[in-house]
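[Meeting: bench + compute handoff]

Bench side (C.D.) handed over the final construct sequence. Compute side (W.E.) agreed to return the predicted structure before the next meeting so the bench team could plan truncations. Sequence as handed over:
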Amino acid sequence: MGAGVRVMGKIRWIVSALAAIAPMVLLAATIAFSAGSAKADQNVYVAAGIPVDLTGDLATLREKAMLQAQREGLKKILASIASPDALQGLQLPSDDEITSWVQDFEIEEEKTSTSRYIGKFTFRFMADPIRQFLTENNVSYAETESKAVLVLPVFTNETGDTELWGPTNPWFATWASRPQAPGLVPIQTPVGDLPDQNAISATQALAGDQPRIQWLSDRYAAGDVIVAEATLLPPGADGKRTLNLSVIDYGAGGGQSAKDQVTNDTGNIDQLLKDGVDRVASLVQNNWKQENLVDPNQRNQVKVHVPFSSLQQWVEVKRHLAQVNLIKSVNLTNLSRTGADIELTYLGDEVQFVRALNQASLMITSSGEGLQTMMLAAPGTIPPLQDDGSGDNGSGTDSSGTDPTQPAVPQ
């Protein structure tokens, strides 16, 4: 009888412990999901550098400026996440309603006179009202944020000399001075230090030397690497200057390319380079947006198993799930000491969903029997280059016997 009591007591203790742990797990997961979503929204739903220049009664100019700036900020965000065709004819809400969508704002610059107000604003909007607005108007939108894209700016001057590193590359300097802007795709440039210079030359970048490009991608934990070549043409008879742009994406899609050009009527090369940077950045943002546009009124579901060996691993998976804006609900159907079964409701098709998971360092695999397993991808490191059919022998050298961390072929 005493043994039975002790056994029943132990069972009650285990049941009580599990009952106590489960709410903690769910609570931790909920907190992580909310925090992660807020962090993601900070990038997608922020409009920075909104200029305003108004004249009139100084007593009311600041208020008018803020109302105008918040409306322009909303337009900027909508343009960054939705297609231009879908936004044509879309009636924006009143100023009062837009104000209710604003989370906070910042006055970046401000100058006033007796009858003029000049300012520049940053507005951070709440995500849910904008999502609801687009959904009610049947407008597809994208809010999957990409991992950082690393740009290798190769410059070819009007005499045909090509450069990547060093002070003789004004295209690189223009990219490096570009302020980091909110958006779906964070864009960064390498620092251009000795390891970078040793890793790849302009010639190798233009040739798409995959082992060397991958080395840089690993070093900067980049999702994609793009080689952006700017070729400065000789001035025309009218003094106009033209910059030819060639962009190749060496990400998961592999070798996607685009060409464009910008022209400056005044012959100002500095402005021409800035316009070229803006054009390439816009191209990168728009391409990602088009690939990730989803119909907000269509939802899909998937059931997955998440294996883990500790509460910390489980909470970490939930934290990464919180970074996936496509996920609209997470339903826990089973929880044990070794794993959890969850049902995810998400926007978009399967390809878009898997891409969004990958951006959050999550991967899904199938057992071939209709079962899906989700787990965290291995932490990003800079491993020795492996044999991927490119001629790498596993020793960190490519088929030519060179080491990407050693000095590159002269430019």
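W.E. noted at the follow-up: The two ends are 87 Å apart (CA to CA). C.D. will use this when planning the next construct.
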